[in-house]
Amino acid sequence: MQIDPFEPEQVRRLVAEFGSPLLIVDCARARNQYRKLRRALPGVDLHYALKPLPHAAIVQTVLELGGWLDLATTGEVQLARRLGVDAARCIHTHPIKRDMDIRNALDYGVRTFVADNPDEVRKFKPYAKRVSLLLRVSFRSPGAVCDLSRKFGCDPEDAVALAGLAAGLGIDVQGFSFHVGSQAADALKHVEAIEACGRLLAEARRGKLGTLDTLDIGGGFPIEYTQRTPEIGRFCAPIRHALAQLPKRLRIIAEPGRYIAGPSALGVATVMGRAKREGHWWYYLDDGLYGSYSGQLYDHARYPVEALRQGEPLLPSVLAGPTCDSIDVIAENLMLPELKAGDLVIGRAMGAYTWASASEFNFFPKATVVAVNRFSGDTGAVL
Ligand SMILES: *Cc1c(COP(=O)(O)O)cnc(C)c1O
Description:
CATH topology of the largest domain: TIM Barrel
Largest sheet: 8 strands, mixed
Number of domains: 2
Radius of gyration: 22 Å
Number of helices: 12
Order of helices and strands: HEHEHEHEHEHEHHEHEHEHEEHEEEEE
Number of strands: 16
Bound molecules: pyridoxal-5'-phosphate
């Protein structure tokens, strides 16, 4: 039997059992997201990027469905290792690493790494026979909310020379990768990058600069917050079309993070106290911008928030976090029924870049993560 842990009755039960603030991770929803993306990108191997929600429940859910992992840090490698994940299912994608990060991942058994500049390629010289590189290429999208191609990636014009450097050092180049930026508005940047990488692969193959059998199209697949977002099948249609133009025997991989983790979790906070200020109710929750709602700052996200209690009339209200900092306000002018201390407030689509970037500022603890529906009959446990 599967329960819907986002139903009010289940939310109350889980808070009674595990406390507040709580992040309820529904593995059934994570499975659904994974399957929808699989259908939208047939033949593409999905490597879940741990960064948005580095949690065992999501990692195991993805692996059970035959998925793969995208690890970027030594901490993420350690999580995969602790869970006994087969290292062959993992790639390491941070373009900038210390030697100890490389050795730690190698020791675990990871063989595919990412580099985006000559210094970083040279770091693999001592391990030349044991690794294979994806060279990350930058495709700027100045309009994107999170333009990940400013901080990382080489110019497309420099990519083949970088492959040449690796080849000269005896390091295999497996292919190219990119990340056009998270929560992409449309797939135009993906398409531009796929087409450009197709040309780079052809050129590097002519120069016999490596096995060059892989293209990694990164993440960026959008989810719905307070604004409508294209359905994933439609969003990916131009990507499918662009991929179909590439040589047949290329392995295509993607690194979805947000798309799998985001809709899979519900944030639950409790009203600690309230005050009427300038005619409006202010509700002070036990979670806020320094906690699970940190994504409102770092990730520029706006989560659909509502009170679990139904009621009339609806009044313009302010939701504030628990810390003593004035920036710690989640929402203003939100229409809510009158709430009291102890009432619950829920935030939807709070799986990605929320708990992961939360702090314990003012010593308010991060939300407890409870995973539900890890298998049929599972009604919730802290992992
Ligand atoms: C953050 C990140 C991802 C995940 O991106 P989403 O937009 O959340 O899907 C994938 N790959 C790399 C290298 C990243 O840094």
